[in-house]
Design a protein that fits this description.
The structure is a single chain. The protein has 514 residues and is α/β, with parallel strands linked by helices. It is built from 24 helices and nine strands. The chain has a five-stranded parallel sheet with strand order 2-3-1-4-7, with helices on both faces. Strand 5 and strand 6 form a beta hairpin. It is globular. The termini are far apart. The chain binds a DNA duplex (25 and 15 nucleotides) through residues 33-37, 40, 89-90, 115-117, 119-121, 133, 135-138, 141-142, 145, 196, 287-290, 322, 325, 328, 330-332, 390, 398, 402, 404-406, 408-409, 412, 448.
Length: 514
Amino acid sequence: MPTKKISSETGNASLDLALDTIKIGKQAIVFVNTKRSAEKTAEDIFKKIKTNSHKLEELSNNILKSISSPTKQCHRLSRCIKQGIAFHHAGLVSKQRELIEDSFRYGLIKIICSTPTLAAGLDLPAFRTILKDLKRFGPRGMAYIPVLEYLQMAGRAGRPKYDKFGESIIVSISENDKKKLHEKYILGEPEEIHSKLAVEPALRTYLLSLIATNFVNTRKQIIDFFGKTFWAYQFRDMEKLIFIIDKMLNLLAEWEFIIQEKEDFASADKLDDNKIRATRMGKRVAELYIDPLTAYFFISCLKKSKSINEFSFLQMVSHTLEIRPLLRAGVKDQDWIQEKIAEFDSFLLEKEPSIYEHEYEDYINSIKTASMFYEWINEKDEEYLLENYNIRPGEIRGKMDIAYWLLFASSEISRILNLQNLNKEIIKLRIRLKHGVKEELLSLIKIKGIGRVRARKLHFNRVKDIKDVKNADITKLIQILGKQVALSVKKQVGQEVKEIPKGTRKGQVSLSGY
DNA sequence: GGACGGTGAAACTTCAGGTTGCCTC
DNA sequence: GAAGTTTCACCGTCC
């Protein structure tokens, strides 16, 4: 096999490879196994480079501007970007990711240190991919990643338009390691693909939606349908498959999402032809596309609710399969989480399980996750959440999106259950969650161009609702919001300002003292 | 003698990501 | 499993 030597400048193979890539005028993606490692590797590389680029400077500023209150992470990224190096993982907000991906395509950014976020889906080729870690922490400790994933990452190397070939390099730590990696990944076969239907949450979700859309209406049709899927093809054992389908049907019936019209049990054939249809609730659950188990959980929580507050619903949506992975409660978290449980005891829709129960850990994690949401709707910023919950801006957005959707689902369920008062509260909470604001800012947030930061500024300056905005002097509004936004706000409340009074001071009123 | 600071070893902690889904001005 | 972080014992210095 031909070999190629690369000068060792740092004593660290990944760094040397990255620096060499820049030297030969190409680009590389370095794949690592943790977010922290992505950030550190990028920093290690940028410290070895000195470039001066106006464009990079500008990009670096835009990275910071992607978020209303930049976190430590954002500053770190913006420092790396100044030298044409970036890190990339799910903790970045989508705007930042976009900026990085685009400028890598233009060739402005030379190296991206990434977790597997960049491995699949995106068309982001580089001349070189440097695979630093092929082991990752999983349920059973550190384990080699699947060959399929390796192929995904390796496949990023080689840009059809620019290069005739690409290089994908695995970094090994010893001769022994090298042998092992070569055998497993270079010579090895990729794993078999498994049907996603094989897991119960997916199966019951699809089963319900097939029934709800009248695609299938009898047990026989259901079995016929699933018999033709990839799942059945792979599973082979049709009898066991029918057993699982029956189990799911019984569950859906028990939860009152479907009704099996039992006419005549005289023969098995007839049983097979009995009509199965979705109930009103079942139909809506199928439309909402949530796991029926989650829907059933929501129903039982909402039905038994007595006293409620925001935390009630936040904890409820934080304890679903959809929102996983939950924030993990560490040793240090245990005390304050217990205090939270005590504080919100009467509001919790789900009581604390015994410490010996299997579900205890999940429950504690759901409280931690709910607390994070709770802080968000009480206007704590991203930096605070990063420090106290170890959750990064991009992950906050991701979790928030799911919770927002789950809250919508629960408000719909409460509507069908005729629990109007709950429905009202959930809708309010949903808006608060979306914008991360206290209740008092709800009316201001309706104005286009006003988010949590500007709404708080307005409120601090005694502009507390639409009426106040109407009454407010344009000069004052400009001081608070800046000219463009102030004019747009006035326009939205039906007051077009043609002429701005002279002597309006430039700059904005700050929030100092708040 | 006691407060304080520095040091290094030991113990502890943490660890990827993605798909759909709903509504709406 | 490995890297980063916290804790803690230990020692020397200074007042």
